[in-house]
Recover the amino acids of this structure.
DNA sequence: GTAATTATTGTAAACGTTTACAGTCGTAGT
DNA sequence: ACTACGACTGTAAACGTTTACAATAATTAC
């Protein structure tokens, strides 16, 4: 009724604990706790009294204390290399769908390779900040001979999209067959008549892009096509890196008629560089992407690319995580392969007639 | 030396607490704790003994217990609407730069409007899971008359990129002047000679896009241009929604010569729909974006758009957060406006000569 | 060598919950 | 009304730290 809005009562509350509620309701703290956690074990009448006291005091359980006492957080943490990467939208959607249904909350941690040292990563996994860790990134300071996975046995780890080295095959993972997928994509380029096919990798130390490169080389070899020196360039998984790498390829004495990029981000950078160089795509040079991020269809020309079933990966990876948390560990360790799919749009055509 | 790799000692460790370390080192638990937290208050010799015991036992402090006891987590949580959104890359980079320097760890929480109920959001903010919350999303169940900000006074809240309603102006925030920015962008379209300018908004209930719409309307009015009915369409901030909205605009009896999209994502969807309709951009229709995400420059035609200083926003918002945590609350409340910038690329030109 | 001072360590309480166990109350069967 | 049983509630311990305070050891000043 007053002209100025009434003061919210939420500021500066000193901190109300379960004791105050118990006192006000005239019950023991145990009863209050039970009201919150197993309401059917307490009499209706008392429950109401307690409920009343809770709202009266504005009590909210101290999550820190609760987590400590329970020994768990009800949190699942997914670690990914970059938050702005559209590839993860679907994966996260899938993960969320299954974990929230089971009462877990999702938190995300970004690990730009630059910012995360081995120690930090180890500390994160070892700290009990979450009940489980879903790793969607590969740049970890373990595996690949860099050290053991720092699992204390308590917080399970599941890997999505990425493959770990063979020695870590006991860590459950869900991913496509990157070698085969890249092989298929290369085969498609070959089938279109391309012979001079370049490959743009990410970082050389990334298992993921190395697998894709392997598939590319296998397909080339199977088609008896040699891969010229410097046809495999490094695009750093970024737009700018890809543009730079593309310019390199354009100066190559044996200029490729097709460029197979290890992901769509780089393919977009590649398209940009080609456009800047006034080179028609796909008329003069074809471009193949990988991942089928949502922008792939929006590119001009729209990207021909390899699609991953991102939501499925998310769901499967989350399911594996829940299983691991519940202790059904043994049954499902090892890696699970989901299908990929070639998506044909506009950025690939037959090579120019001269070739 | 054996052929198979030695068994990692990390599995199934029952759980080693500070007591075991103390026992092994022959000191009290207090000393162990001090070794970890204030090493200079303990004698060199003992510190070495303890250090030894720590590695021998494989001890790692229980973060849950520590957080509980300390009453804080050393975590800062940033809440954003969608993890796959490239807009946030820069903001997060900025935030990370300043908070990590102060020893905080960043965690991210996604709040797709669909998945987050008012209760959940309130619970999250009220739970002490993080020492502070940086909100980069607007779809919150408070403000705008939906209820008070559930701040318990303990965990500060800072808002980035978004503006809250006036009644919440005590929550610190950092953002551009969205009204003015949209005004400027519209002015640019007008200066190019456009008169029939459409506007594509996000969700109608979003303060952010409403502000931009307001700027658009102001500019139109200032130029004495009327906004035809159904020239303001809803694109839902998504590619598909934008494509749909664009098709609607194409059927409009007074077809616009320019479409101003409230963000780049929608602008890209718009471009896609125009391409599908075989309409040349910008020759036949100009498209103006907003945000200058990294793909804006890669679009074909490259997007003319409004750039936000994302990293700066991140840095400022993080600084406000640290100030708030340190209790320097009063000095910096209220909103802070950072500059925007028009980025002129290819998607806007003069209207076709007939107009 | 003794006293005063400081540096280092130990003791024990506290943080706010949850939960095993014991106790009490209510109800129903006799 | 008494007993027995079940439903409900209370007591108190425990979780693993950190930290105020007390106690001891080492060092310095005489």
């Amino acid at each position: 009724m007053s002209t100025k809005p009434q003061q919210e009562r939420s500021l500066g509350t000193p901190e109300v604990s379960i004791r105050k509620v118990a006192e006000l309701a005239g019950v023991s703290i145990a009863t209050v706790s039970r009201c919150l956690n197993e309401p059917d074990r307490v009499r209706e009448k008392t429950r109401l009294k307690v409920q009343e006291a809770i709202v009266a005091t504005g009590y909210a359980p101290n999550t820190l204390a609760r987590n400590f006492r329970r020994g768990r957080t009800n949190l699942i943490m997914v670690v990914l290399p970059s938050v702005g990467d559209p590839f993860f939208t679907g994966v996260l959607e899938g993960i969320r769908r299954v974990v929230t249904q089971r009462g877990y909350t999702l938190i995300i941690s970004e690990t730009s390779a630059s910012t995360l040292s081995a120690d930090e990563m180890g500390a994160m996994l070892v700290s009990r900040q979450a009940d489980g860790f879903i790793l969607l990134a590969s740049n970890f300071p373990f595996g690949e001979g860099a050290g053991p996975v720092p699992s204390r046995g308590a917080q399970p780890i599941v890997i999505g999209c990425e493959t770990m080295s063979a020695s870590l095959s006991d860590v459950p993972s869900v991913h496509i067959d990157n070698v085969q997928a890249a092989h298929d994509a290369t085969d498609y380029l070959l089938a279109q008549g391309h012979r001079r096919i370049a490959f743009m990798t990410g970082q050389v130390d990334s298992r993921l892009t190395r697998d894709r490169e392997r598939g590319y080389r296998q397909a080339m070899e199977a088609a008896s096509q040699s891969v010229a020196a410097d046809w495999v360039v490094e695009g750093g998984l970024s737009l700018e890196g890809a543009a730079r790498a593309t310019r390199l390829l354009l100066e190559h004495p044996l200029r490729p008629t097709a460029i197979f990029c290890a992901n769509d981000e780089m393919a977009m950078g590649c398209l940009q560089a080609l456009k800047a160089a006034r080179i028609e795509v796909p008329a003069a040079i074809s471009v193949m992407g990988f991942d089928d991020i949502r922008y792939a269809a929006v590119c001009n020309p729209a990207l021909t690319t390899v699609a991953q079933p991102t939501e499925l990966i998310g769901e499967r990876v989350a399911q594996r995580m829940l299983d691991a948390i519940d202790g059904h560990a043994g049954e499902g360790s090892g890696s699970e392969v989901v299908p990929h799919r070639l998506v044909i749009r506009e950025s690939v055509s037959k090579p120019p007639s001269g070739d």
In short: Chain B has a mean pLDDT of 88. Chain B is about 35% helix and 15% strand. Residues 17-19, 29-30, 33-34, 37, 61-62, 64-70 of chain B lie near DNA strand D (CB under 10 Å from a C1').
